[in-house]
Design a protein that fits this description.
Distance between the termini: 16 Å
Oligomer: single chain
GO molecular function, one term: oxidoreductase activity, acting on paired donors, with incorporation or reduction of molecular oxygen
CATH topology: TIM Barrel
Pfam family, one: Bac_luciferase
Keywords: Oxidoreductase
Strand content: 5-15%
Strand order of the largest sheet: 1-2-3-4-5-6-7-9
Protein name: Luciferase-like monooxygenase
CATH architecture: Alpha-Beta Barrel
Family: To bacterial alkanal monooxygenase alpha and beta chains.
Largest sheet: 8 strands, parallel, barrel
CATH superfamily: Luciferase-like domain
Helix content: 40-55%
């Protein structure tokens, strides 16, 4: 682990079992404030729809909430699911954020709907749009956020000339190729899609073409982190995430579950095997254990930045996990 690997946070705004959405959004604010104090690079929120366990569907609105509570930390989307929206609307939303919080806003983009097909249809985008529309939407977004040309008829106000930096997010080789083609920074979803990680990183690095935004490849990778005072406590807190992934496999739309003493009482061996594979890069344990796991991950991937999600039911335990990670030698070198 080098002293130049920044740490960031992907807040999935978990609606915890027994909590209100208002409390969920307050939790996000608290996380952002502490992340800034601890020296994290950025905090992003993800767009999901119709999920009882995720409260960040109106991503730009929540970013305004946490941006107003902080002063320096970068804020952004991890990501906005561009096929759900008109590029012009996203340009206006993030152009507004950039005007409110200058030089602090990132726009991470994804291609998946972030929901089921019925909900995606209710979002009222063209359901017949093909893969080829995604690159065209990215180009349109770059045009709206860039310096307008004399012949440009459609302007994003706010947004025009804001030059909000774009990121491409993904879990596949397609996203790696597209990020390389556009010369954009790339964030890989290794926190839930581990299988294509190394192939995607290799393709992105090999095919990268410099752009006005970025001269050389820049990669961020996602990692789930459940860190506590002891390995045993961390494994206990981790059972909430295991239940969430089991519920996703079952098609059960539920709030983020409380941890349980024995995960085998609520998940089958087959489910636990699937979850262990899906979350193979999760960092779970004490600060010492987590540091060793993270050191191995960074050395193996050679990523430029790591973005952590803290899937912990109790807010105090989540904030404590953030602090324990921030006390690692790598994080201390940045503060």
């Amino acid at each position: 682990m080098t002293p130049t690997t920044p740490f960031s946070i992907l807040d999935l705004a978990p609606i915890a079992q027994g909590q209100s959405i208002s409390q969920t959004l307050e939790n996000s604010r608290q996380m952002a404030v502490q992340a800034e104090q601890l020296g994290y690079q950025r905090i992003w929120l993800a767009e999901h729809h119709g999920m009882r366990g995720v409260g960040s569907s109106a991503t730009a609105v929540v970013l305004g909430h946490i941006g107003a509570a902080t002063n320096r930390i970068r804020i952004g989307s991890g990501g906005v699911m561009l096929p759900n929206h008109s590029p012009l609307i996203i340009a206006e939303q993030f152009g507004t954020l950039a005007a409110l919080f200058p030089d602090r806003v990132d726009l991470g983009l994804g291609r998946a709907p972030g929901t089921d097909m019925a909900t995606a249809k209710a979002l009222r985008r063209n359901m017949q749009a093909g893969v080829e529309d995604y690159p065209n939407d990215i180009r349109a977004l770059q045009s709206y956020l860039g310096t307008p040309t004399p012949e440009q008829k459609i302007l994003a106000i706010p947004g025009s000339d804001s030059h909000v930096p774009l990121w491409l997010l993904g879990s596949s080789l397609y996203s790696a190729q597209l990020a390389a083609q556009f010369g954009l920074p790339y964030s890989f979803a290794s926190h839930f899609a581990p299988d294509a990680l190394f192939d995607a990183l290799n393709i992105y690095r090999r095919q990268f073409q410099p752009s006005p935004q970025l001269e050389r490849p820049y990669i961020m990778a996602g990692v789930m982190a459940v860190i506590a005072d002891t390995d045993e406590e961390a494994r206990y807190l981790y059972t909430s995430l295991q239940q969430q992934f089991a519920n996703l496999r079952r098609g059960a739309n539920k709030p983020f579950a409380r941890p349980v003493d024995d995960i085998h009482t609520v998940c089958s061996p087959a489910e636990l095997s699937m979850i262990a594979h899906t979350l193979q890069y999760a960092i779970v344990g004490s600060a010492e254990t987590a540091h060793k796991q993270l050191k191995t991950f960074i050395e193996n991937t050679q990523v430029d930045e790591v973005i952590f999600s803290f899937p912990i039911h109790d807010q105090n335990a989540r904030l404590h996990s953030m602090r324990l990670l921030a006390n690692s030698p790598n994080m201390q070198s940045q503060i």
